[in-house]
Amino acid sequence: MLEGASVAVVVPAFDEEELVAETISGIPPFVDRIVVVDDCSRDGTVAAVEAVADPRIEVIRHERNGGVGAAILTGYGRSRDEGFDVTCVMAADNQMDPAELEGLVAPVARGEVDYAKANRLASGEAWKLIPRSRYLGNAVLSLLTKIASGYWHVADSQAGYTAISLDALRKLDLDRIYRRYGFPNDVLVHLNVQNARVRDVVSRPIYGVGERSGIRIHAVAPRISWLLFKGFWWRLKEKYVIRDFHPLVFFYFLGAVMSVVGTALGLVVAISRIVGGNEITTPTVVLVALLLIAGTQFTLFAMLFDRQENEHLG
């Protein structure tokens, strides 16, 4: 226990026989339960976990590989059902410093926030340690996640080192959350609809410990971007239409419509000029410019309103 709160740690694992034992062995004594979810590993991951012989460990095995999100959700469900006050997530590849776990758990245990997550970018070390393609991909996805989730103060959206309160966990519909690499992004979208308080905790990035990343940024980024696009409109509907009403919905809608129409009209005019040699008239140019400028302004005002509406959740 920590700060009077019971603590569980979920460790999603897939083919991590080399590092999972070291990961589990480093988990601090204040943790009451370690839920290792083996996502249908093809190696000796389960045997490596059992060899640790820690009485806090519970192993749950998936019969089919469901993705990292699915493994975490299985652990979330078990921790929620058993009533642990704080549930954390630590990857099985030993890239999350166990010494930082207390810093994540403490604010949740004290009731200051509902969800605490690591931020590897804040220290400035990430630029030196994280491969450039992954760093830039993370930066882009973090920006998109700010827009989609409404948590404008949160960065490093791909960090999976987290802690969540029992109350917040019970409010989440675990069946609706994305089950693969977009899991941490989608969780933030769902938490915002519940008005959960979220805080970034500075974390030290760890690389070069023998981990093997299964992430291919060129393949994953488009899928997560599409997930965030859908999550953004779902959040607006749930939070600002169904549960309450806020005029920022009109600003986002008008901004989207004017931007799309202005872009489409501009492309049609440009193509007709290039292919057919048609003359571009001044009124047409003015119309396209007005649509794009108005669309941009409406969108920026909507973002400002959204940020103001969620400032108290920081």
Descriptive notes:
There is one protein chain. The protein is of the alpha/beta class. It has helices spanning about 20-25, 45-50, 70-80, 100-110, 125-130, 130-150, 165-170, 185-195, 215-240, 250-275, 280-310, and strands at about 5-15, 35-40, 55-60, 85-90, 115-120, 160-165, 200. A seven-stranded mixed sheet has the order 3-2-1-4-6-5-7, with helices on both faces. Helix 6 (about 130-150) runs parallel beside helix 8, helix 6 (about 130-150) packs parallel to helix 9 and helix 10 packs antiparallel against helix 11. The chain is elongated. It starts with 6 loop residues before the first strand and ends in a 5-residue tail after the last helix. The model has no long low-confidence stretch (mean pLDDT about 90).
What labels describe this entry?
11 helices; elongated; 51% helix; alpha/beta; 314 residues; 7-stranded mixed β-sheet; 7 strands
Average pLDDT reading: 92
Q: Give helix and strand order, one letter per element, not per position.
A: EHEHEHEHEHHEHHEHHH
Strand ordering within the main sheet: 3-2-1-4-6-5-7
**Annotation, overall tally of beta strands:** 7
Instruction: Provide the gyration radius in Å.
Output: 22 Å
Computed structural class: alpha/beta
Beta-strand percentage range: 5-15%
What's the N-to-C terminus distance? 25 Å
Largest sheet: 7 strands, mixed
Low-confidence stretches: none
Q: What shape does the CA trace take? A: elongated
In DSSP terms (H or I, runs of 4 or more residues), the helix count works out at 11
The helix content, as a percent range, equals 40-55%
